[in-house]
Design brief:
By secondary structure, this protein is of the alpha+beta class. 23% of the residues lie in helices and 26% in strands. The longest helix is centred in the first third of the chain and has 20 residues, at 2-21.
Length: 86
């Protein structure tokens, strides 16, 4: 009985780690930092964003690192990812 419980706990732990590591492909260590997004406007397609401007897109905080227009955060190298909004 003790062996079965140990194997069950080991299996649950392995499944938990697999799920945690598969949550995010943007962050190389697998942990999303929480970002403070209060007062940050949402991303609007077609606006021109300049370096330093921050937006919220899909519940995450991004900052423009280059001038860009109509480039979605997370899909362009013109944006820096700061984490999910808390």
């Amino acid at each position: 009985m003790k062996t079965k419980v140990s194997y069950l706990l080991l299996l649950c732990f392995a499944l938990f780690l697999t799920h945690v590591n598969a949550l995010d492909t943007k962050d190389p260590i697998g942990v999303k930092p929480l970002a403070v997004c209060s007062g940050v406007p949402p991303f609007f397609y077609g606006f021109t964003y300049y370096p330093g401007q921050r937006v919220v897109y899909n519940g995450a905080l991004y900052q423009a690192i280059a001038v860009n227009t109509a480039q979605y955060p997370g899909f362009s190298s013109s944006w820096a990812y700061f984490g999910i909004c808390n």
